[in-house]
Design brief:
mainly alpha
Length: about 90
Amino acid sequence: MNFMENEPVLEETESHWVFKAQLLIIIGFTCFAAAVILWICRLIYVSWDLKDTFSGSISIAIVAGTIFLVILSIFHYLVWGLIREKKSKLD
């Protein structure tokens, strides 16, 4: 049995785990960003319901929501770009 014959199998197994890790990171961060954005929307609703000034909640929502959406889009771009690059190298 040649050592070189086992190398691609090891590569496939490693790339399979890397893909799972990337997918887990993207799903986890997407859920986290969605939870933060929903929480901020809930803060605005509670401020509105209590007839409180909700300008602070809206200011936080604009800043935090934008930051989370930008980071989320960068993560998606990077991970799917890595996956596409890996597929093009395999073909």
